[in-house]
């Protein structure tokens, strides 16, 4: 939608009006047939139509282009009232600068920044409202450190609040201890399984070493027996040699 033509000071050229909403162009686009539209208006139109609303020539979103520079300059030079005129703002400025002014206008209606407060006030009155807002927060004057809303002043009980806070901390601590306990148990189980696996591997290696040692002892005994047999044969041969 465009800018309400009633807000403008003086004459507005017909060529600067949207062909759909008939208000002054806002964020304008131009079709090849040179008819101009607000971006929101023409995009909404082309959802259900495929032609220009003025001369019915076929158009497509891809054919839309920015407004000619001279038309854009004429548009930006138009003078209009601030949208907050009904609240007391008397500012009149160019269309080119109206958005910047309205973002900072002291008569703009803005929401209260306190959580839970639905009041909207003029920007110039915001500080005064915040000073008396029933949703404003402050630290307990009794020193418990609890942040309270002004509306809760009469219900606030330091002892009860601290007790509640203590219970929450205790519950959180218990949860953390349980989590740490489960984590330690999980780690111990993992280490225990790892040790059992290592023990099994070591046991197998020991058994293998025992088997190898047994075979070596058997081989040593065989070698010693063969050596004794060889020595006896040498002694027998020596005796036979002497006899000869």
Automatic annotation (TrEMBL):
GO biological process, one term: regulation of canonical NF-kappaB signal transduction
GO MF, one annotated term: ligase activity
Residue ranges constituting the RING-type domain according to the UniProt record: 18-56
InterPro entries documented for this protein: Znf_RING, Znf_RING/FYVE/PHD, Znf_RING_CS, Znf_TRAF
Stored Pfam families: zf-C3HC4_2, zf-TRAF
Name of the molecule in the record: RNF41 ligase
TM spans (from-to): none
Renumbered zinc finger spans (TRAF-type): 101-144
Keyword line: Coiled coil, Ligase, Metal-binding, Zinc, Zinc-finger
């Amino acid at each position: 939608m465009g800018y309400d033509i009633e807000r403008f000071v003086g004459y507005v050229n017909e060529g600067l009006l949207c062909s759909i909403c008939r208000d002054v162009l806002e964020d304008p686009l131009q079709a090849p047939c040179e008819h101009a539209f607000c971006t929101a208006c023409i995009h909404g139109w082309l959802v259900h139509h495929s032609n220009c609303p003025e001369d019915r020539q076929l158009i497509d979103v891809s054919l839309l282009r920015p407004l000619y520079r001279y038309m854009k300059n004429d548009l930006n030079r138009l003078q209009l009232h601030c949208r907050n005129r009904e609240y007391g703002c008397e500012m009149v400025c160019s269309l080119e600068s109206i958005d910047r002014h309205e973002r900072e206008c002291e008569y703009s209606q803005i929401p209260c920044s306190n959580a839970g407060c639905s009041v909207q006030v003029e920007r110039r009155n915001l500080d005064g409202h915040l000073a008396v807002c029933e949703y404003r927060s402050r630290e307990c004057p009794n020193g418990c450190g609890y942040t309270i809303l002004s509306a809760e002043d009469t219900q606030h009980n330091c002892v009860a609040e601290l007790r509640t806070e203590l219970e929450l901390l205790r519950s959180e601590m218990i949860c953390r201890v349980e989590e740490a306990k489960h984590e330690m148990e999980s780690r111990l189980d993992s280490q225990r399984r790892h040790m059992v696996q290592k023990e099994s591997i070591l046991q197998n290696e020991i058994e293998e070493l025992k088997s190898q040692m047994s075979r070596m002892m058997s081989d040593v005994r065989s070698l010693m027996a063969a050596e004794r047999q060889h020595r006896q044969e040498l002694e027998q041969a020596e005796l036979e040699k002497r006899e000869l």
